[in-house]
Structures are given as structure tokens and as C-alpha cells.
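User: Can you recover a sequence for this backbone? Please restate the input before giving your answer.

Assistant: Of course. Working from this structure:
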């Protein structure tokens, strides 16, 4: 069975994508730092996809904190030890912090950079080697529409997503000649636990995680380089970054 490895797969977009991959005949490997949340997510998927899930090995959970140095390497070796055919890697785990840059704890910022930027790079490097050997594979890196401009009062988060956006586009160019697809998902406002963790209320116009996930997986399977869910989000891409940065400041301040 072919598998999709999804980091941050216990809730939100990651959990919704797990359901999408199951629908398409893949097994899924969910990675998270919380064993409890992993067990809950697995049970929810088994109930929700009861007509599809025929084996206990179709949904695998792996506990690993990816916000620490060396976390990506540990996850890679744990997954390799499973002996599964990982055809797809989804770098979805991440979080944001809200506030003036001087007010955000330095260690929290370091942890966010590790999870949002360093970990995806490490997982891409490790799994790309295997994919190149096999001559096939797909990677989906989850950035954000925040990658398209700086974000006052959410500066490190937007910058980390801008880094991932640029990195993903570069390795897509490299991987294409080796039979491997690399796509970048840039979701806008989505109904997930992201805003709760950042200390904000979820905006009423937020897209559902399920809709975002379907668009994301469809785009990956169609070899789209950049996937931006929603008409408005795509229109906003052409707005000058300075203008968008001003409105980000008004919203976040």
C-alpha cells in the first residue's frame, strides 16, 4: 500500500487531508507531538471512513515533536522503520504567534522557526533522496497567503512561510527532472485551531478545512506548483505587497 505522511495531521487541514488521501486509496501516517491527539484522530478517521478503512495498518500514528532540533531526522527514521512505501509527504505542522516582535518570547520564536521552516527543509531533503531513488513521489509543503507579503505583528510567522514558499518553488524545479512533484499550498484564512493558538478569534469568512484540503490534494495530484484556495485569495495575490502589509498591520495590531 502507498502511504501519505502528514505532519500536524491530528486536526485542521492536516486531518482533513488525511481523509482525502484515504478516499483516494492511500494509507496515511499521522505525525504529531501528542500521543493523545494522535489516538483521537485515528479513531475519528476509522469511524468517518469505516467503509474505506479495511486494515489497522491503513492509518498509522507516529509520536514525534518536530519543534525541537533533530525532530525531523527522528521522524524520518521512525517512518523508515515501519517499512512502508511513503509516496507522499505533507509538511503541514506549524503555528503562528501574534504581537510586536520585541514582545514575543525569543524561545517561542525559535521554536516556530524550527517547526515552520527548518523541519520541512529537513524532511524534504531526507525523503527526496528516497523519492529520487524510486523515480516517483510527491511533496506538499503548506505555506500561507502570508508568504506573499511581510506581516507586521505576525512577523516571524509570515517570514517563515515566505521562506518555505521560496524553498518549495526552488526544489520543485530540481525535482521535476527526477520524476518527483513538489507543490506549495498557500491557504488563506481557514477554520482551524490556528487562530485559537495564536490568541485570536477565527474570522467569519474563513474557509473550511475540508474544502481547503480537497483543493490542496486535487492540486497536488494535478501537479500544480502553487495552490491557492479561494477566488478572493487568488485575486489578492496581484495586490502590491506594501498595500497588503498595511492592512495586515491594521488587522493584527
Amino acid at each position: 500500500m502507498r502511504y501519505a505522511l502528514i505532519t500536524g495531521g491530528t486536526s485542521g487541514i492536516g486531518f482533513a487531508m488525511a481523509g482525502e488521501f484515504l478516499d483516494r486509496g492511500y494509507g496515511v501516517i499521522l505525525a504529531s507531538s501528542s500521543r493523545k491527539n494522535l489516538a483521537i484522530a485515528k479513531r475519528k478517521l476509522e469511524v468517518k471512513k469505516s467503509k474505506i478503512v479495511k486494515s489497522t495498518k491503513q492509518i498509522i500514528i507516529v509520536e514525534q515533536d518536530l519543534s525541537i532540533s533533530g525532530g525531523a531526522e527522528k521522524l524520518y527514521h521512525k517512518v523508515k522503520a515501519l517499512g512502508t512505501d511513503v509516496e507522499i509527504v505533507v509538511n503541514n505542522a506549524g503555528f503562528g504567534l501574534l504581537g510586536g516582535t520585541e514582545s514575543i518570547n525569543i524561545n517561542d520564536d525559535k521554536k516556530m522557526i524550527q517547526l515552520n521552516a527548518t523541519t520541512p527543509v529537513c524532511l524534504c531533503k531526507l525523503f527526496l533522496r528516497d523519492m529520487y531513488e524510486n523515480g516517483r513521489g510527491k511533496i506538499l509543503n503548506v505555506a500561507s497567503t502570508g508568504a506573499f507579503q511581510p506581516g507586521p505583528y505576525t512577523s516571524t510567522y509570515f517570514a517563515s512561510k515566505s521562506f518555505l514558499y521560496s524553498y518549495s518553488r526552488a526544489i520543485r524545479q530540481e525535482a521535476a527532472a527526477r520524476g518527483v512533484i513538489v507543490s506549495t499550498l498557500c491557504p488563506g484564512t481557514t477554520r482551524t485551531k490556528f487562530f485559537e493558538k495564536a490568541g485570536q478569534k477565527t474570522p467569519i469568512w474563513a474557509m473550511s478545512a475540508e474544502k481547503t484540503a480537497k483543493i490542496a490534494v486535487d492540486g497536488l495530484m494535478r501537479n500544480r506548483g502553487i495552490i491557492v484556495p479561494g477566488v478572493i485569495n487568488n485575486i489578492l495575490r496581484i495586490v502590491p505587497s506594501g498595500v497588503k502589509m498595511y492592512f495586515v498591520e491594521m488587522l493584527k495590531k
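That completes the design. The beta strands are 2-7, 27-32, 59-63, 85-91, 138-142, 181-185, 190-191, 207-208, 226-227.
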